[in-house]
Every structure is written in C-alpha cells, then in structure tokens.
C-alpha cells in the first residue's frame, strides 16, 4: 500500500522536474529577422539584443541571447559599403585581444566562424577582420568576412578596452 506521504512526494517530483528542466532550457533564446526594420519592430534593438550600430541594409539577422548573463550573439549580412561605414567608428583588434570569456559562446548562431571557436583550430582567413565597438547597451566585438559581406557581433570585454 502506498503511503500518503510517499504519494505526495512522488507527485511533487513529477510536477517539479518538468517545470525546473523547462525553465533551465529557456535561459538561451534566439530569433531570426529578415531585415533590421523587422528586428526593430520586434523590439530587439530596444532590448539591446541587436546592436544599435547595425547598418540599415542588414538582412538575414540571427540573434541568440542568454537571459541570465545578458550576453548576445548576432550574425547578419549587409552591403559592403554599409559594413565599411559601420566599422569606421570601430577599433581593429587581433584574435590575441580576445579572452577565453570573450569566446565563450553557449549556442552561437549558425555559421559561427571557426576563428571564434575555442580551442582555436583554424588559422584566420586573410579576409577575416576583428573590431570592437560600443553602443548604449554593451561593449561588442565585431568579426567580418569582407568578401562575403557576413558579420558576427557579440558582447565581449575586449570591446570595452
């Protein structure tokens, strides 16, 4: 015969486990936007998930953010001229400026470059460039492949240096 206390404990665990495991899974979230205007309409810039300095021509935007740490990672494409304007106010850096924490990325957007994964297993491509910049929300690192018009942006300590 099942005792009342054992039954209550079993029911409590059966209810608590799915709730707890689900809440842990929701710490990292992400969205995709066709355009910067779509991201702005959804409030992603206001919340700081998407940097304010992204060019208006940004498309194929994918952002991932961690609600607990308030860190975010973004991948997008934009016109080459607009990328140049965006990085005009940024400071060039090398991979050596990035700490392990700067490269700690729990669930990066698709196509995250091998140059930004730890352990570093690849020699950076010749057209792979790194910069730092700030917006009103955070210090950001910016990586880009010039010829591909592909850009990655994420929160990093090197961006504040």
Give the gist of this structure.
23% of the residues lie in helices and 29% in strands. It has a seven-stranded antiparallel β-sheet with strand order 1-2-3-7-6-5-4. By secondary structure, the chain is α+β, with helices and mostly antiparallel strands.
Structure description:
The protein is α+β, with helices and mostly antiparallel strands. It has one domain. 23% of the residues lie in helices and 29% in strands. The chain contains three helices and seven strands. It has a seven-stranded antiparallel sheet with strand order 1-2-3-7-6-5-4. Strand 6 and strand 7 form a beta hairpin. The longest helix has 22 residues. It is globular.
Q: Any key phrases for this structure?
A:
alpha+beta, 7-stranded antiparallel β-sheet
Question: What layout of secondary structure does this protein have?
Answer:
Layout: H1 4-25, E1 28-35, H2 36-41, E2 59-66, E3 71-77, H3 80-88, E4 91-93, E5 128-134, E6 139-145, E7 150-155
Antiparallel strand pairs: 1-2, 2-3, 3-7, 4-5, 5-6, 6-7
Rg (CA only):
20 Å
Biggest β-sheet strands, sense, barrel: 7 strands, antiparallel
Compute the number of strand runs: 7
The secondary-structure element order is HEHEEHEEEE
Mean pLDDT value = 80
Question: Helical percent range?
Answer: 10-25%
| Terminal Cα span | 67 Å
How much strand content do the residues show?
25-35%
